[in-house]
Write a structure and sequence with these properties.
single chain, 82 residues, alpha+beta, three-stranded antiparallel β-sheet, two-stranded antiparallel ribbon, 24% strand
């Protein structure tokens, strides 16, 4: 797991378990079976990939683009237009 400050943390937890633990924060999403992203750190969103604030590219599964787009736009609207 890579944190926003660049630190890498190793864990034995599965991504499903990590996502379940992070669910209460409401800002984490699984765009691909191998990644969890924090919506606060998304810099750009395209059909096949997410660009994170640090420039890293995260793949988006074929069937998840429409959902991540909706989730991200709703999240940003709620964050900035409360």
């Amino acid at each position: 797991m890579k944190l926003s400050n660049g630190t890498t943390v190793e864990t034995n937890a599965t991504l499903s378990n990590l996502l379940e633990m992070l669910k209460e924060y409401g800002r984490f999403y699984l765009p691909h079976r191998a990644y969890i992203v924090n919506l606060d750190y998304i810099y750009g969103l395209a059909t096949r990939e997410i660009t994170m604030a640090d420039g890293e590219k995260v793949p988006v599964s074929r069937g998840r683009y429409k959902d991540i787009k909706t989730v991200y736009l709703d999240y940003m609207a709620g964050k900035y237009f409360k």
